[in-house]
What we know:
CATH class: Alpha Beta
Helix content: 40-55%
Largest sheet: 5 strands, parallel
Shape: globular
Number of domains: 1
Low-confidence stretches: none
Strand order of the largest sheet: 2-1-3-5-4
CATH superfamily: Sugar-phosphate isomerase, RpiB/LacA/LacB
Structural class: alpha/beta
CATH architecture: 3-Layer(aba) Sandwich
Strand content: 5-15%
CATH topology: Ribose 5-phosphate Isomerase B, Chain: A
Number of strands: 5
Amino acid sequence: MQTSFNTLLPIAIGSDHAGFEYKQQIIEWLQNSSLLVRDFGTESLESVDYPDFAHPVAASVEQGETAFGILLCGSANGVAITANKHQGVRAGLCWSKEVSKLVRQHNNANVICIPARFVSLELAIDMINIFMQTAFEGGRHQTRVDKIGC
């Protein structure tokens, strides 16, 4: 599988209970594609707090321990808000293939956030695949990305 990220590093993934089933299937898909995965949990459908999983995923991306991150929750808003608290993280909430491409091309996103209650598993995997294969365009977008951090 072609990717714009360093595939020598594992891919970070985490979810709350609403994204758990998708997370498990996405891990299987990634591993079947010969990619390394680091699972930050959750480990069941039991109700949990999404920041407990979003912060470790974001920290691993920010510290360069993982190539990029995948976060799932019901709406993906909570995990996106949480991940974006990390200076080196640009987490994009994606609900379509076009958006997953644009968050890479224009925003240099390094974490994709997926609303498990609002997209199909097939669409989630398609979005991740597009996210991985799309390169950041730089240029005028770099100037904008440089202004994101506080």
